[in-house]
Design a protein that fits this description.
Three copies of one chain form a homotrimer. By secondary structure, the first copy, chain A, is of the alpha/beta class. Chain A has two domains: 87 residues, MurE/MurF, N-terminal domain (Udp-n-acetylmuramoylalanyl-d-glutamate--2,6- Diaminopimelate Ligase, Chain: A, domain 1); 211 residues, UDP N-Acetylglucosamine Acyltransferase, domain 1 (3 Solenoid). In chain A, 16% of the residues lie in helices and 28% in strands. An eleven-stranded mixed beta sheet of chain A has the order 8-11-14-17-22-25-28-31-34-36-37, covered by helices on one side. Chain A has a ten-stranded parallel beta sheet with strand order 6-9-12-15-18-23-26-29-32-35, with no helix packed on it. In chain A, strands 7-10-13-16-21-24-27-30-33 form a nine-stranded parallel beta sheet, with no helix packed on it. In chain A, strand 3, helix 2 and strand 4 form a beta-alpha-beta unit. Chain A starts with a helix and ends with a helix. Chains B and C meet through strand 20, helix 4 and helix 5 of B and strand 2, helix 3 and helix 5 of C.
């Protein structure tokens, strides 16, 4: 479909200054805009780019008054950031499937495939699996026996869903993420070796969950590892067996959560955070990147930092002193000397 | 096969209180039990669940005396945890293969495939590779040229085994783990760029090794990167070139071990631990999660903590003071003032 | 091809002591050498191995004078390490493709495939994708719609390249790495849930870039996430959306770089390092393993350490005091007591 500046202006309820018939292929950052793209100016500190950009159109604030001539057609809006969000959605094709099943996929005859499902090349839908209406299974994905995928979800190439796991509606799972691998459970034997504890549970993902590339979510020993509705996981995250992640909690890349820990809803967990097993984290907790949480967090909406983690402000203040520890040690030594001299 | 309470009682040498003919589909956590499942009560603090559970059967201690009526059939045993372990094994199907080779797999004519091997759809067994008797290669796995996999091992979907790597008997490798990628070796050139050092060695895994999902074990520059018998690796772990991991060492998720380091046997390495290259770690070493080990550990059975890591107790004591550093700095300042005032 | 000691001696400009006609299959570490292999002695502390090695040939320094008889044929060279590098290249086959396209691959008719390209089994080359001359696409790789791969690059099994991403010439990407997954962008809504911000940009890799196994490089929201020429990334690394990595920067395993951060050229980033978003890191910066960089680094060629990171030497000195904090606290307490006693 041909998209013009006029159509975009209508979408974002903006007013046009310039040629409304310019055709737009997609958005671009203002400093890298080329003809056929639309950019935006949301922050005055980037104003200089507005005069140099090669973009054909520019979303700007209604109050913006240019100090130099601008070649691009302007679209004036009330809120630039909201207009950009609407624009990005307009050009988004991440949920565009073929609606067909590749002849080079393996779909077990016992699998139940909903209407308008896309299944890519060399994907495997194993016996008893169910794929809900409108879901897009990209190439080379594995859906294990008895696994259930909801409606309008997207699984990118190389995603592995082990047997009996369940994924909700409107989820997005990025490439090479693994859902349902065995929990890490071993019983020590008298001779110092280990006996594997079979992992018979599954993983359940709610609706509107996003899982980043190369994440791993282990199945429960018994019962379920659960990621509740609307939780968003960045890449390379480890979720151990029997963990529960509350609704609308966001977790940044490379964080890891040990077994049986329950995280409340609306938490924000920073990158490379580690959380020990068998604890509860209250809803609304904010954990600073690289922190290590070693015990339960009972009070809601706290921010913590450090390894082991302590209240955020305390860590910052302690670390400020830490940076001057050699100096502080010298002051102590000097004082010791003074006191000693006085004594003698 | 139909499994009844009577059969389970016999398996765990337990005594039945209730209907021995109830059919059991599998185990479930006591708080989430449904009809047809069996649960257990190993810790009195969960006793309340015993009176509410929907499970059809319950493993309890011989000495357990209920304070309220329990609907579930009880199986009384000497050691609940051991009975649960036996029960989980009974229902475990992770080593159940088809014993067939998918017509949609690629198996090079020169590959040697043992008896009763399962090979899934879209898997590749390259030239000269060998797969031992009873091994299960799931879907979309890659076994590179000349690679050798032992007997009764299980490789889950998306595992990549590069050329000439060797995997022992009774191993389990979870999805998307990579065995034998190039070690990270580059020689700096005069112009500031880097020259790749070819990585010609391989990876050797002993017997009874478990490798978690999305782990990476790099091949040696020359010789072998070695994971000895019975070692267990959780998910997302990095093992660099020429590393050696001792027998029955367990490593938690997201730990990383740099090149040429040798870890002794029976070590316990916590999650997100980092260990520098070219050092030795004595057997029985315990490394606390998120620690960074920067030098050799010579003495056996030590516990270390911190980044860089120091003896465990020392870190804990130093961190206890760290948390009060601002307070300590104030005390020092006050003392300086007092001494100064006295002087004047 | 038969390779003899004589041929190797010519390659490395060495002088032979012993049988020049011995056939060599490949290199091996001196302590693990077997007949048919060639080893090297670059460091006198390993001299004892020279008298025991089973290798057929040994690269040694011109000045080396053995204290015991050596069975292996010696090749004397000016610089052992450089000779080893030349030798490794001689035996390297990592860039040896079949030059053919598997009949079990899916190549869209609209894809443009250069001369002498290898495409492995069950790989997918999607519509509009381009693969440059001499590039090797191993088995089970995904090249998304409109993606462009340069010349003489190697993509190992399971690599995923999302749509419209670009990879340069002479790149190497290891198994299960993901190039172009969605950046982690979500806008909070009034009800506490999140709205996905579509990620419409791409990833651009320069020439001579190496990406380790299971790395993830997210696509930009708009514009491009860029890895410049000659950058080398180890395994399991996270590169967020709109990041730029400068030329010839090396990054060790499990490091993570948050969104929109720009790293200069010739930096060295240690393992498990975390870097916050939206900052600039000057060229030549060295970041110690496990550090957390929380702010811009403006001055070139600095070394930093700690979480949050401070100048390297400062961290080392502060940590030295940290290790003795309990002792220091005791000294302070003692002094307080003394001063108090004097006062009274």
């Amino acid at each position: 479909m041909r998209v013009t500046v006029a159509m975009i202006a209508q979408l974002v309820q903006g007013d046009i200054e310039g040629d409304p018939q310019v055709e737009i292929q997609g958005p671009a950052p203002i400093e890298a805009g080329t003809p056929g793209t639309i950019s935006f100016l949301a922050d005055v500190k980037y104003e200089a780019f507005a005069y140099q950009t090669g973009s054909s159109a520019l979303l700007v604030d209604r109050t913006f008054s240019p100090q130099q001539p601008i070649k691009a057609t302007l679209i004036r809006v009330d809120n630039v950031r909201m207009a950009v969000a609407a624009l990005l959605k307009q050009f988004d094709q991440s949920k565009t499937g073929t609606g067909t099943i590749s002849k080079q996929a393996f779909v077990d005859p016992s699998a139940v495939i909903g209407a308008n499902v896309s299944i890519g090349h060399f994907s495997v839908i194993d016996n008893g699996a169910e794929i809900g209406e409108g879901t897009i299974i990209h190439d080379q994905v594995t859906i294990g026996p008895g696994a259930r995928i909801g409606k309008n979800s997207v699984l990118f190439p190389g995603v592995r869903v082990y047997k009996n796991c369940q994924i909700g509606d409107d989820c997005m799972i990025h490439s090479n993420a693994v859902i349902g691998s065995d929990g890490f459970g071993f019983a020590p034997k008298a001779d110092g070796s280990y006996d594997k504890v079979p992992q018979l549970g599954n993983v359940i993902l709610g609706n509107h969950v996003e899982i980043g590339a190369n994440c791993v979510i282990d199945r429960a020993t018994m019962g379920s590892t659960v990621i509740e509705d609307g939780a968003k996981l960045d890449n390379l995250i480890q979720i151990a067996h029997n963990v529960r992640i509350g609704a609308h909690t966001v977790i940044a890349a490379q964080a890891g959560i040990a077994g049986s820990t329950h995280i409340g809803s609306h938490c924000q967990i920073g990158g490379q955070v580690g959380i020990v097993g068998h604890i509860q984290i209250a809803e609304g907790t904010k954990i600073q990147a690289q922190s290590g949480v070693a015990g339960a967090i009972v009070e809601k909406d706290q921010a913590v930092y450090g390894s082991p983690a302590i209240p955020y402000g305390n860590y910052v203040r302690s670390y400020a002193v830490f940076k001057n520890l050699p100096e502080m040690e010298k002051r102590l030594r000097k004082l010791e000397k003074e006191v000693k001299e006085k004594r003698s």
